[in-house]
Amino acid sequence: MVYPEILKQAQLFVLAIPLGAALLFVYDLLRVVRRVVRHGTAGIAVEDMLFWIVSALLLFGFMYRQNEGVMRGFIILGAFFGMVFYRIFFSRRVVKGGTAVLSCIVRAFGRFFRAFCAPFRFFGSVFCSRFRKVFPIRKKSARSAKKQLKKIGKAVRIGFSKL
User: pTM above 0.90?
Assistant: First the structure.
């Protein structure tokens, strides 16, 4: 005979597995956006912090609602198993496919606005010039970037020498 309390805890464990997989799926969507749109180190850190805070609150809310506020380690373990299962079997495909789809959308969006801004470039439209900074038509070459870094380095050295 199986006790009802043990059966309920087993059900909670099984329900926590898809919750963990769903959390990692959302994180993979965040990874897709990072691959397509450039992010700085500080931006990535803030996004990660916010994601994991929201994830912790969702997991706590799940435990609070489903288990009458009693914290149980097996629920966290179930979420962890769901994350591991998702990571092994689905994560790579989701990130690759999502990156391909989102980059196609961003490229199409960029082409549309470049075509839209083309007649206005002659007049030097402010909107179009700002848009070109977001979606550059030509990327800087490695040499020009190296020159800029050297200039910045010299300016920093000069600034420190004056101190």
Answer: no
